[in-house]
């Protein structure tokens, strides 16, 4: 899984997890979780707590990555 999307309305949260393939515009949703706002907040707290524990044990999770190099083309752009 390398894609996640979260939608919500007054009564539920929808969490989609899927796979995006480079060069293809579509994303294949592999799993969808529907939950109440209350349980979404509990999940958020549990994730936060577990990330803190992980970082204490293994170091900070890297979230900044260099931009990919610009694509070089052989075609003039006149």
Structure write-up:
By secondary structure, the chain is an alpha+beta fold. 28% of the residues lie in helices and 29% in strands. The chain is flat, with a radius of gyration of 19 Å.
What distinguishing features does this structure have?
1 helix, 3 strands
- How much β-strand is present in the residues? 25-35%
**Measured distance between first and last alpha carbons:** 41 Å
| Oligomer designation | single chain
Number of strands: 3
Arithmetic mean of pLDDT: 91
Q: Which strand order spans the largest sheet, edge to edge or round the barrel?
A: 1-2-3
The H/E string reads: EEEH
| Strand-pairing-aware structural class | alpha+beta
The percent of residues in helical segments reads 25-40%
Largest sheet: 3 strands, antiparallel
Question: Quick gist of this model?
Answer:
By secondary structure, this protein is an alpha+beta fold. The protein has one helix and three strands, in the order βββα. The chain has a three-stranded antiparallel sheet.
Topology of this structure?
Blueprint: E1 3-8, E2 13-20, E3 27-35, H1 37-58
């Amino acid at each position: 899984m390398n894609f996640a999307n979260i939608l919500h309305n007054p009564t539920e949260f929808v969490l989609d997890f899927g796979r995006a393939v480079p060069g293809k515009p579509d994303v294949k949703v592999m799993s969808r979780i529907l939950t109440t706002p209350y349980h979404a907040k509990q999940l958020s707290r549990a994730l936060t707590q577990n990330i803190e524990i992980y970082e204490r044990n293994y170091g900070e999770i890297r979230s900044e990555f260099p931009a990919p190099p610009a694509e070089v083309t052989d075609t003039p752009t006149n």
